[in-house]
Specification:
Layout lengths: L2 H7 L30 E6 L1 H4 L9 H11 L5 E6 L5 H6 L1 H5 L5 E5 L2 H5 L4 H17 L3 E5 L9 H18 L3 E2 L22 H16 L8
Helix pairs in contact: 3-9, 7-8
Length: 222
């Protein structure tokens, strides 16, 4: 039996017990997740961009992001490399890249076209279409050149290699002469397939081959 009932039974007036008013709770402002407003660089390519055969964080776009951060460039690198992709596949993915609203696109495609012996004219047409679409979308394009193994014949290789400087000149686009320059001929920097770089090779690609061509297009931000 409660104390209030006992006191009432004794003829004493009992004030009803009042519950303590809940303490006012200060409204806590809801913090929105910080949005990454850094301008975007899209690495648009095939397995050489995707980081085929490597652990997460070991592709050349990953190392490029680290190099940009270290040098004070506030950019976000988006890896849109798709292993096995051709220039035709790249054309189909143009909208996906533009959805990121990139400031710069590093276009690395064509290697799988060459390995399949596809007509160079078709590859060139597709690359031309991609460059035009990216530029129309407000992005600057850096074109990465690729070469082929010698067994594809000197005439086909020559036509294939000349495709990249010709397109770069047409669109006045900066060009990486050969993405795997200084890497492809060093066994310790290549995976066993002889086509894809190791993690150490990807770091060299980012630091020595990509960043020097990319840097004139970048701006440092506080």
């Amino acid at each position: 039996m409660s104390l209030a009932v006992l006191l009432a039974g004794c003829g004493q007036r009992v004030e009803p017990v009042k519950e303590a008013a809940p303490a006012a709770v200060a409204a806590t402002p809801v913090r929105e997740e910080s949005r990454d407003d850094r301008p975007v660089i899209v690495a648009f390519g095939d397995s050489l961009s995707a980081g085929y055969g490597l652990e997460s964080g070991e592709s050349y776009p990953d190392y490029l992001q680290k190099a940009l951060d270290e040098k004070g460039y506030r950019y976000r690198v988006v890896n849109q490399g798709v292993s096995g992709d051709t220039t035709s596949g790249g054309v189909e993915r143009i909208a996906q890249a533009l959805a990121e609203k990139p400031e710069i696109v590093i276009l690395e495609l064509g290697g799988n076209d060459g390995l399949r012996g596809l007509p160079v004219a078709l590859s060139r047409q597709n690359l031309d279409r991609m460059i035009s679409a990216f530029k129309a979308g407000g992005a600057k394009v850096v074109l990465a050149g690729i070469t082929l193994p010698p067994n594809y014949g000197p005439e086909y290789i020559r036509e294939f290699e000349q495709m990249y400087p010709a397109l770069a000149a047409k669109h006045q686009a900066p060009r990486i002469r050969f993405l795997l320059d200084g890497v492809a001929t060093v066994g310790s920097l290549m995976q066993q397939d002889g086509i894809h770089p190791t993690a150490a090779g990807c770091k060299i690609v980012a630091d020595r081959n990509v960043l020097p061509v990319l840097a004139p297009l970048l701006r440092k931000r506080g």
